[in-house]
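Form 7-S
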Amino acid sequence: MSRKKNLTHSLYLLFFLLLLVNCSLDYREVQMAEKLLEETPKTILINFKHTIVSEGKGVVVLEAERAEVFSQEKGTFLWGLYLKEYAGDGALLIEGWAERAVWYSDNEKASISGSIYLYSYDERAGIQAEELTWEKQGKNLSSEEDELIVIKKDDGSFLQGRGFEANFREKKIHFFKGVKGSYVWEEDQ
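Output:
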């Protein structure tokens, strides 16, 4: 019997030693899993459409071919964007598109890129760029200093330059350098 008991103790000891050998303090797998969770979207939406409603009316309609939602800090990534903004009476104010954007809901800012075009029906003018930043709070649109921005009006006037800041509340536009353009003067008939 004591041999059997010794054998049982030996098996327990062997099992315990194997368990210790297989356990490690290497947390790389855990860290990799955490990193993978950060890099994996919480939600993926295809042919996404988001409508902001005010007083029972759609005032902003945002469509995207694809949207990937991450944390607030990392943002929501959008591809193939199309945007429409409406006045309270239903009149179309702004229409635009871009290849990509990242929306940060924590500070209500967006980084927009790739063949950007925005058209204002009130101003009868459009803006073209490759990269812009939008800040909702101040209604500011801006670019990096070397980014070429082109503004064209329906009457043939145009303005272009590098580096750009626009405040749409105050209707102010500022270019940093290389500004040129032409203005078409129309007399009242």
